[in-house]
């Protein structure tokens, strides 16, 4: 819910539902916004007065309820996983295959930070011979947690990683390792 309306993604269309449970524009055929070039939305997050959306094919979209813009797009093959507002910044988790468009599913997990117009890569992990995808980003207390498959490429298994903005550090919080 953003500015008293619920935003819903239908493929490449973004629609708004009013508080009386009617569509702002009566037909889903005429959406609030067309989002060409994206396949579908995987995450929405409020950050600094704007609603941000992440598409599965690596687009970051922003709306202020009047204007909707495609702010950022990764290279072909990069898959958007999650968005999270934390410590006044917007964080993005992606899965980046080693061979975009290839027949393999191997690739790396990556966490980015958006601050104003700057996009900074914070953490990249995985071995190019394994699939290392991040999980959803969650904030609990003063820390941001996320799933870290293949334990940052250290060993097989799955772990929960934690990012501390004050320390600007990533660490493994818990693990379940395959032996």
Describe this structure in words.
- This protein is mostly beta strands and 179 residues long.
- 0% of the residues lie in helices and 54% in strands.
- The protein has no helices and 15 strands.
- It has strands at 6-10, 13-17, 33-34, 41-47, 50-55, 59-63, 68-73, 79-86, 89-97, 107-115, 118-125, 138-140, 143-149, 157-164, 169-177.
- It has a 4-stranded antiparallel beta sheet with strand order 4-5-6-7, with no helix packed on it. A 4-stranded antiparallel beta sheet has the order 8-9-10-11, with no helix packed on it. It has a 4-stranded antiparallel beta sheet with strand order 12-13-14-15, with no helix packed on it.
- It is globular.
- The termini are far apart.
Briefly say what this structure is.
The chain is mainly beta and 179 residues long. The protein is built from no helices and 15 strands.
